[in-house]
Amino acid sequence: MLEVTFLSAFLAGILAFLSPCVLPIIPAYISYISGVGVEQVQKESRVFNVRIFLSALFFVVGFSVVFTLLGAGASLVGQFLKAYQTEIAKIGGGLVIFFGLHFAGAFLRPNFLRELIGVEALLLSLHLFGMIGRETFLSLTGALAVVLALYLFRVHEYLYRQLKTEVKAEVSYLGAFLIGTVFAFGWTPCIGPILGSILFLASQQETVREGAIMLLLFSFGLGLPFLIAGLLFSLFLNFVRKFRRFFGAVEVIGGLLLVTLGVLLVLDKLSWFAGLGTGI
What we know:
The protein is mainly α. It has helices at 2-18, 26-34, 38-43, 50-79, 85-103, 112-128, 134-152, 155-162, 173-186, 188-203, 208-231, 233-243, 247-266, 271-278. This is Cytochrome c biogenesis protein CcdA.
């Protein structure tokens, strides 16, 4: 089970990197923190640039430190909440579902509220016809109530507004590190749906060490492609141009994965992933 959550954290980091609000601006960020312009890179014949790679490395270390500390803090807090673990898991599952819908852009649909009511009506019908039990029905209804409450309080609109935040700092290796730490906080609204889900999983770990490792793996998943982009910057520019047409699919698939994770948390079926891994 622990190995599964660690793997999920690493894959979540990669998914965060590929998200439409991160990947397109990575070239600008790498260029900014390294002081090497995109046009300059395109004119150079060499593929590897030491300055760009080291700047990217310090940037990754910066946000990794912050995310790892957040993971340690989340698991530390989680130890004090073990008595309410079941209730927290259900509410947290609703939050993860909300993040998944946000990531997939579902809140931008003009009929989202009507569709949400339709899902609840479907659950009620399944319960009345005996296809799902009372506990399952109430758990899923509670999760939808969390989504509805956050939607009515316009939390999703706040998240979308925060995507416009820009980060500025001086260019140097130390500056790249500092930008990385600011990135961890400033880009949270952008990768928040994924990060929030991983932080919740970290809070459910038995020890502070496990929570810290989970967020360290998330940082590694997010930082590894970033380092590769810095190492092969000129090739990465071409990759971004070609990958643009898949941004919509990344949003939908990533959102569905988060919603699935949220449902499994609500139903206390997260161990199902472990069963897949062992063939059970």
